[in-house]
């Protein structure tokens, strides 16, 4: 499940996810579109905001790129 899917599952807007993860909304959009390389800090913040284990987010990101 990718970041957009996590966000949609929780019915969060990009702005809401960004606020919960303490990152800029534009960054959330760029990550979802694949325009921005996800840092470990961003992955950790998004995982916490979505209440998903960090390992699952990292696994999903790796599988999507592979």
Can you put this structure into words, describing what you see?
- The chain has 66 residues and is an all-alpha fold.
- The protein is built from five helices and no strands.
- The protein has one domain: 434 Repressor (Amino-terminal Domain) (Orthogonal Bundle).
- 70% of the residues lie in helices and 0% in strands.
- The longest helix has 12 residues.
Essential attributes:
single chain; 434 Repressor (Amino-terminal Domain); mainly alpha; 5 helices; 66 residues
Write a concise synopsis of the structure shown.
The chain has 66 residues and is an all-alpha fold. It has helices at 3-9, 14-21, 25-32, 40-50, 54-65. It is built from five helices and no strands.
